[in-house]
Structure formats: structure tokens, C-alpha cells
Design goal:
By secondary structure, the chain is of the alpha/beta class. The chain is built from eight helices and eight strands; from the N terminus they run ααβαβαβββαβαβααβ. Helix 1 packs antiparallel against helix 2.
């Protein structure tokens, strides 16, 4: 039992005692007055009257105390009810959170299963047709430079876009082939930055950090004050990436729930794409991105770089290693796609 419950019971007991005392005193006062009225002796009548007055004063005092303790009991009862309400709300909240966790885990398992099934079917189709078709002739980056366009947009929320871009730059600069990568870093990226970067910089890799969901990407506006940003559909983003004579080789959407967009990209736009299968914490996304580009700059294939970045999340004790998802077209192989090739 709670402290308020014990206090309520004690207060109710006290209130009951004082009410009983009040009743007894009023009864005694009534008897004394009746005796005074019947007495033929003036001294006896006066004595009984004084006795009645004392009993009435005692009854009034007991009534006051009884009312005070009853008020305390009522206050403790309200506190007890309020505490019970809070406990019930907390229990419901905990149950709801557990249910959301269960649903999220189930969704992650379903996505992983669907991704593995789609990957198996894609590999099967590729195996059946691969005997008759050579792998696509990819636009390999020149040995001296791999061009990476880093787009960051966080007009709303507390994403650490600058931190991610700083970590990627540091990872590249400490890598074996750091001189073979050129970064075009665009924080607070607008849709104009997207088009300008694609047509002027002609990147091999387009990397986006910010907010997204299954069907949308959020860019910023060209404004200094806080704003909600510009919603860009996955289709419009894909069209922008595709509208170039030399489209990128890889698109990385380092943003929440973006994995559902990458299949459309590899179907018609780019050979390789990476997205996140669910919501991912800011710090986890930064760890993945930094290790991915470090591995790329060390001459690893896209597949090896992706697996290395997932391993970095596991080594950090995080449970999000399965969220980054790599997709590729049927006629390419991520294990043989090396983006940084030093000169012979």
C-alpha cells in the first residue's frame, strides 16, 4: 500500500474517533440540560447547566477536529487516486512502448526477410541470364579522382549534418588513396544544389544526409531563417539524378526509411544504391558513413566497404548494423566494383 493510502486510513480512523466523541459529548450535554430543567434546586440546575456547556464546548472541539481529519483523509484519497492514475498511465505507456518495439522489430525482420528474398530472386535471375549477357560496362572513375557529392539538409530537427560531413572528410583524408578522391560538400543543400552538383561536378557518388521516408526526401530552401524545408518525391529525385549524360555510379541515402527508394534507383537510374531500412540514430548513421568512405578510399569494393561499415556499427556495440541496405542492378556485381583505382 502506498504512503498516501496508509495516511488516508489513519486520517479516517482519527476522523471517526472525533465524530464518536462529538456525538457522546452532545448526548451528555442534552442529558445535563434536561436534568437542569427538571431540577427544583437552583444550585443543582446551575451545576447541570455548566456541565452541559462544558460538554457542548467539548463536542464543538471534537467536531472541529473530526472535520479537520476528514479533510486530511479526503486530501490523501485524492493523492492516492492521482498516484494510481499516474501508475496506470505509466503502465499503459510502458505497454505501448513494448508493443511499438515489438512491431518495429517485426517490421525490421520482415524487411530483412523481404530484402533477402528479393536479393536471392535477383541473383537467381542474374545467374539464369548471365550466361548469355556480359556484365554492364560501367563508367569507371578515372584513376586520379573519384568525385563524391555530399548533400546535407536539416532545416528541421537536430541532425548533425556538419558532423557527418566532417567525419567523412577526415576518414578520406586518412585513407591510403586520399589523393584520388575529390569531395564537393554542400551543407544546407537545396534542390538547386542537387542539380548544380550533378551537372557541374559530375559525381560518381551522390551522398544525401537528412530527413526522408519511404517516398520522400527533404531538402532545404534558400532562406536564412528556420523553415520546414522542401519536400521532394523519390521519383523527382531519381529523375534529377538520371537527367545527366554521365549519371552517378552510386547513390547513398543516409537517412531514415530510405531503403524502399533504392530499388527504383537501381532499376532505372544507377547501378548501386544504399539506403536505411528503418529509423536510424544520427550517431549510428555517422559511424556507417565514415567507415564506408574510409574503405572506399582504401581501394575496397562497394560490397566490402558496405560490409566494413556494418561491422563498424557492430564493433561499436550498436544494434543497427542491419539497417544499411545495399542494392544493385541485375547486371553488375558490387564485389567487383572498385571505385578508387590507383594508377599502375
Amino acid at each position: 500500500m502506498s504512503a498516501s493510502g496508509k495516511q488516508r486510513i489513519e486520517a479516517e480512523r482519527k476522523a471517526g474517533e472525533y465524530r464518536s466523541k462529538e456525538t457522546g459529548k452532545r448526548t451528555a450535554a442534552a442529558k445535563a440540560r434536561m436534568a437542569a430543567a427538571k431540577s427544583t434546586s437552583s444550585s443543582t440546575a446551575a451545576s447541570k447547566t455548566r456541565e452541559a456547556e462544558r460538554a457542548e464546548r467539548d463536542a464543538a472541539t471534537a467536531g472541529t477536529e473530526g472535520a479537520r481529519w476528514q479533510e486530511r483523509a479526503s486530501r490523501y484519497s485524492r493523492e492516492e487516486a492521482d498516484l494510481q492514475s499516474k501508475l496506470s498511465k505509466a503502465e499503459r505507456s510502458e505497454a505501448d512502448a513494448a508493443e511499438r518495439r515489438r512491431e518495429r522489430e517485426q517490421q525490421q525482420a520482415d524487411r530483412k526477410s523481404a530484402s533477402e528474398r528479393a536479393s536471392f530472386e535477383r541473383r537467381l535471375d542474374d545467374t539464369e541470364s548471365g550466361l548469355k549477357r556480359a556484365l554492364r560496362e560501367l563508367r569507371l572513375p578515372k584513376p586520379e579522382k573519384l568525385r563524391v557529392l555530399l548533400l546535407g539538409a536539416a532545416s528541421v530537427g537536430g541532425l548533425r549534418i556538419g558532423r557527418e560531413q566532417k567525419r567523412i572528410r577526415a576518414a578520406v583524408e586518412s585513407a591510403l588513396h586520399r589523393d584520388l578522391i575529390e569531395l564537393d560538400v554542400r551543407p544546407a543543400a537545396t534542390t538547386a544544389d542537387l542539380l548544380d552538383g550533378l551537372t557541374k561536378f559530375r559525381p560518381h557518388v551522390v551522398h544525401f544526409s537528412g530527413h526522408s521516408d519511404d517516398h520522400l526526401i527533404l531538402f532545404e530552401e534558400e532562406r536564412d531563417e528556420p523553415h520546414q524545408g522542401v519536400i521532394v518525391t523519390a521519383r523527382a529525385f531519381a529523375s534529377a539524378v538520371k537527367a545527366n549524360d554521365d549519371p552517378p555510379l552510386l547513390v547513398v541515402l543516409n537517412s531514415c526509411n530510405s531503403a524502399s527508394q533504392i530499388e527504383g534507383l537501381v532499376d532505372t537510374v544507377v547501378p548501386f544504391a544504399i539506403g536505411m531500412a528503418d529509423e536510424i540514430e544520427d550517431g549510428d548513421a555517422i559511424i556507417y558513413a565514415a567507415q564506408f568512405y574510409a574503405a572506399v578510399a582504401n581501394g575496397q569494393s562497394i560490397r566490402a566497404a558496405h560490409l566494413s561499415a556494418q561491422a563498424a556499427l557492430e564493433l561499436a556495440g550498436l544494434s543497427t548494423a542491419e539497417l544499411p541496405t545495399l542494392a544493385w542492378a541485375a547486371d553488375v556485381d558490387p564485389a567487383s566494383a572498385v571505385l578508387v583505382r590507383p594508377a599502375d
